[in-house]
Structure formats: structure tokens, C-alpha cells
Design a protein that fits this description.
The protein has about 120 residues and is mostly helical. The chain is built from 5 helices and no strands. The longest helix has about 40 residues. The two termini are about 40 Å apart.
């Protein structure tokens, strides 16, 4: 098991941040929000809708606690699958943009969409 001095880790992080301009600290914020906000909105709306529609019968499970657990699991899994399927394309765009930035090129979202359309990944 590796251990490290928390002070040296924190000090290294602070030194790295001070070497970069503050605008670099937040360069991934917009792409991350473009993925995470819709995912959360779709997930929670889907979860609440499913929770109002899914009913586990007393005949299936006698315990109220287990019925609640099973209902929450089913609703959460279903909502998560739908949200993931709908937001994965945005995540792919974010990943391509990050790859381009590491490679030293800066592509607009329009350019990334065109790149994906013209040369889809196999």
C-alpha cells in the first residue's frame, strides 16, 4: 500500500495551480456541465416518473423495506440507463475535445461534430 505525505501532495497541487493562469483551472467546466446537467435532469425526472409508476406487490415481497429497496433499485437502474444512452454522445464530444487539446489543437464543437460524422469510430 502506498502512502504519501498529505502536506507534500497539497503543496505540489498548490504549486501546479499557481504556475497556471486561473482560466486554465476551469477549462473543462463547460464540456463537463454540458454532459452532467442533462444527465442529472434526465436521471432524476426518469427516476421520479418510474417511482410513481412502479409498484411492487405484497405478494412478491412481504417486507416493506425490501419492496422499497427493490423499487428504488429498479427505478434508479432504468433512469440511469436512459440518461446514459441519451448523454453518451455529449460525453464523446467532450472526450474528443480533450484529446484535441492534449494534441495541441483546439477544435470548435462544430468541427468535432463534423469530424465524428465524417469519420465515426469503429
Amino acid at each position: 500500500m502506498q502512502t504519501s505525505d498529505v502536506g507534500s501532495t497539497l503543496g505540489s497541487t498548490v504549486r501546479m495551480l499557481l504556475r497556471q493562469p486561473p482560466t486554465m483551472w476551469f477549462r473543462g467546466t463547460v464540456p463537463t456541465l454540458l454532459r452532467d446537467v442533462p444527465f442529472s435532469a434526465i436521471y432524476w425526472c426518469g427516476y421520479e416518473y418510474a417511482k410513481s409508476r412502479v409498484c411492487i406487490s405484497d405478494q412478491v415481497l412481504v417486507s416493506d423495506n425490501l419492496r422499497t429497496l427493490l423499487q428504488s433499485f429498479i427505478c434508479g437502474a432504468g433512469a440511469g440507463i436512459v440518461a446514459a444512452v441519451l448523454t453518451t454522445p455529449v460525453d464523446m464530444i467532450k472526450t474528443v475535445r480533450q484529446h484535441d487539446l492534449i494534441a495541441g489543437t483546439q477544435s470548435s464543437y462544430h468541427d468535432i461534430l463534423r469530424k465524428i460524422r465524417d469519420k465515426p469510430a469503429a
